[in-house]
Amino acid sequence: xxxxLFGIALDxxxxxxxxxxxSILAAILVIPMIAVFEGAFAEQVNLSGPVNENSAPLAAxxxxxxxxxxxxxxxxxxxxxxxxxxxxxxxxxxRFKPSQPKPVLSWETGVGKSYFIPxxxxxxxxxxxxxxxxxxxxxxxxxxxxxxxxxxxxxWDHLVHGPWRYDNDGFQGNQLGHPYHxxxxxxxxxxxxxxxWESFPYTFLGSLLWELGGETNHPSINDQVMSGVxxxxxxxxxxxxxxxxLEYRGGKPGFWxxxxxxxxxxxxGFNRLVFGDRFKPVFPSRDPAxxxxxxxxxxxxxNDTGSNLNRRSQESLNYSLSYGLPGKPGYSYxxxxxxxxxxxxxxxxxxxxxxxxxGLLIGEKYEVGNSYRGIWGLYGNFDYASPxxxxxxxxxxSLGTTVQWWLxxxxxxxxxxxxxxGFGAGGDGPQVGDRDYHxxxxxxxxxxxxxxxxxxxxxxxxxxxxxxxxxxxxKPDGSEFITSLEAGLTFRFYGYHALGIQYVLLHRNSYYxxxxxxxxxxxxxxxxxxLLGDTRFGTVEWRNGRMVNRH
Length: 551
Known about the structure:
The chain has 551 residues and is an alpha+beta fold.
């Protein structure tokens, strides 16, 4: 089933992508020319890995992994007078010795990771994207200037004078294209061996470089948040899923695994291809408890105030992945996104496409008795949903918990409760340029419950609510309440196959002083086929003498 996601996700992304998203995808195809140079340069300079402080072979250092070689491994020579560390001159620093083995990445010790390579990749990606936009979109004008005709004066003027503001671009480009843009920066750093927190500055600064020098228009507050912060949350989910696929069935990843990982996280596939064995070690998932499914459905819009869509049929597609469910013995949550939830949903009408991910940034696991296990802490959230009247997106940090509670020997309740604050956009407000939605500081809440009856059936209910306030908001002043509610019942009838029924309700309440107040509700009823990743609907078993989660 992991192979099912790739074509689905790529087709949906291309279908709903803005010009910015398509430009980014095209730039990814051009960038290998830059990487060939930077890869060679990185090998010559060999700036990765810790400097040897006492001339001892790196292999002799406690806690380091390395490739065995006669006489050990030495990354840097000592200086001629025998004083350990440092370099005497540039010639010594740039000396290339083909006989010495290149450092290979170790995710556990950090040997072989690089801070320099992803920095060069982020810069190269921005330059390539700008060059591509000049060629393809060179006649696009904004504020009387060609949008991509930038130079160093542009960068300096934006850096010194700004002014920073909200832009008036369309919803898809701002709220989906830019997070995907940021995920590229994040992926470059992660796939070069850096941790989540080490990669975060690359994502944020990569976005800042683009805002200051990628376009001639004013730097955008909303773009910086969506690329620089949402890009990290979105990018980490894609990076984890790509490496989960590379781990699939163990052993050396095959062609289709490499291709699928490259589709999910383009920078991961790129670095694995260009740098060979250097970045080939797969990020260790440490065997989390996982539950995933793919759903397809046929439904009807049964309630839609203010439109003519009532009683109209529609098709749906949904992919869901829960990674690191609580309760698995021996699994810990030491790294950001050791637990995360990822969902992708599309409806054929009214052009609905959504992505939502929330991952545990900092937290701990806990337990109550022998029947209750959970995790709690600070989560990072990115949400995007695109139906016109209900479109909403938020980037937030939330406090909350994710749990599993055995109510009976064969009945379990899984759930999550999150509440947080961040920056978001949404609604169907007054038109300003291409923007018909409202920016503002955003409150976000999530309540998700899943009642599981052994391997027979699952009842689930999930609600998300967003309040896009006037605080720090765009003009004209206004606020939006947007709520989504899902409820469904699923029965497993054979193996990994299940059938079910689901009701989805969307509600919006808008308030713009001296302009208008608006309410709208839409409900959809669907019949679903589900391909399950686990016949026990993702329950994790830790009680003595029972089987653990299968995935």
